[in-house]
Amino acid sequence: MWKFKDTVLCISLMKEGMDSHGYVDVYRYPHSHKCFMFFKIREMRTKVNLDPDAVLATQYSASQPDVSYESIWKCEQRKRQLQFKDKPLPPLPPEAFEDYTNKPRVIALCDFFARGPLDLPLKKSEEYIILEKYDPLWWRARDRHGNEGLIPRNYVTENKKSNLETYKWYCRNINRSQAELLLRQKPKEGAFVVRDSSRQGLLTLSMYSRAKGSHNGDILHYHIKQNHLGLYYVAENYLFSSVPELIEYHQHNAAGLITRLRYPVGSDGCTSAENTGLSYEEWGLNPSELLLLKELGRGQFGVVYLGKWKETIKVAIKTINEGAMSEDDFIEEAKLMMKLSHPKLVQLYGVCTHHKPLYVVTEFMENGCLLNYLRQRRGKLSRDVLLSMCQDVCEGMEYLERNGFIHRDLAARNCLVNVEHVVKVSDFGMARYVIDDQYISSSGAKFPVKWSSPEVFHFKKYSSKSDVWSFGVLMWEVFTEGKMPFETKSNAEVVREISQGNRLYRPHLASLPVYKVMYSCWHEKPEGRPTFAELTVTLRDLTEMT
Ligand code: ADP
């Protein structure tokens, strides 16, 4: 039957003298309904303004595949009526010609501004149809108004309910510390983000809350787990068949969480078009999201800048000069260092591994390095303040000790002070990646002999206990308001003094109990020195006494 009707239709159209417009081709494939319609309409597009009647006939058949001989007849009747009216019909909407139902649909992750006539601009959260995967980086797409053009493929994501990237609360490319940074930017009760966990295949829900009563608020990280039936949960009694359903439920009910999820903290999720296709490692940072603003200082590795991440968040960006660092070893270690997170440690946010020079991005500390801070405020800092600075450093070091991480270059110059005058330990572990003989060799001019324990300057034997020695010297720097230990003595003289059992004198701002604490750090044998855990308790007791 079909065949017969097709044939009739085609013959009928040909009878109208349209064979010159290509219908013969259509006639060759009467079995294929899809092909038949497609070709016929394509030809009609060119015909629209020339022969409106033919359009009418074809339009009818296009929308009514089960076309009958009677309908063709009716069309012909109508055509004859129209012959008396010379008003042209309006052009057909493009949708009438193409079948988009099976084309992939995507949603824009962020705005994209067309940079040439071939580009199609994108608006965040709007839907687009993908017409052609033009090349691995650029796709041809169509917007809802029928405009077509090329788009960068990493600006869009499949528009499916199950695709997490379509949700504002999902940030694929951030790690724990970056999540904390985002949540603390506008610390609102119940602000939350869902990110890929450091454990492969798992998701983590990170949220901000003041419910526990802490002044700065807490960031809590919950793994989103699956039970044996594959159902998702954060709190075991509340199970869901998908993560979006879980989030939606907890947006209305705390149900086991510290508070309900109130504010999704979005990140725009886009990498730049220039970097389309570059795969950033999970913990890496995208350099196009970083802006260098002004120089803060110069260090062992290169210039340090104040910068912005994602246009809003202030960060410090250390640029690493060519040849100044064992980069590959550092990049490997940075993955671990980023997991170290404590209020008294300068947080490492990430490293731009695909960028030269290498960028090391850390928490920005408004008041700069502790040594300069002390020197600039000589005579203005009370003993209590000096003690609380030592306490800050000790707490950060206690965390490193607990995690088996050795600093190797603890000194006032390697601590930083933030806007709230909190002192934090910086540059932990970095000494291992310095390429500079003067710094590495214990006889080199830059080797920090004055902060080093005997086992370090003799045998380079580092431990948390050698960090404790350095901490004693740092306490001395704090209580002298930034004096140079052993003043103008050379490194060789310092080694001789220490080996003879001499130690740094008591600064006049240090009470006897305070001096006893620093002195205890300078025991010749590592085992004779206190741990940071013990020092934290001792310093706390001292603060409470004053
Ligand atoms: P390095 O340890 O590589 O020798 P530093 O970390 O000491 O270099 O950086 C040099 C200077 O840059 C510091 O003295 C300080 O003034 C500034 N600086 C470094 N990191 C930060 C930061 N996170 N926030 C603010 N200033 C910083």
UniProtKB/TrEMBL annotation:
Domain SH3: 101-161
Gene3D superfamilies linked to this entry: SH2 domain (3.30.505.10), SH3 Domains (2.30.30.40), Transferase(Phosphotransferase) domain 1 (1.10.510.10)
GO terms for cellular component: cytosol; nucleolus; nucleoplasm; plasma membrane
Reactions the enzyme catalyzes: L-tyrosyl-[protein] + ATP = O-phospho-L-tyrosyl-[protein] + ADP + H(+)
GO biological process, one term: positive regulation of type II interferon-mediated signaling pathway
Sequence positions that bind ATP: K318
MF terms (GO), sorted A to Z: ATP binding; non-membrane spanning protein tyrosine kinase activity
EC number: 2.7.10.2
Pfam family, one: PK_Tyr_Ser-Thr
Residues annotated as domain SH2: 169-265
Keyword Kinase set for record: yes
Residue ranges annotated for the Protein kinase domain, each copy included: 290-546
Database matches in InterPro entries: Kinase-like_dom_sf, Non-receptor_tyrosine_kinases, Prot_kinase_dom, Protein_kinase_ATP_BS, Ser-Thr/Tyr_kinase_cat_dom, SH2, SH2_dom_sf, SH3-like_dom_sf
UniProt entry keywords in alphabetical sequence: ATP-binding, Kinase, Nucleotide-binding, Phosphoprotein, SH2 domain, SH3 domain, Transferase, Tyrosine-protein kinase
Top-level EC class: transferase
Family assignment from sequence similarity: Belongs to the protein kinase superfamily. Tyr protein kinase family.
Protein name: Tyrosine-protein kinase
Organism: Taeniopygia guttata (Zebra finch)
Protein's gene: TXK
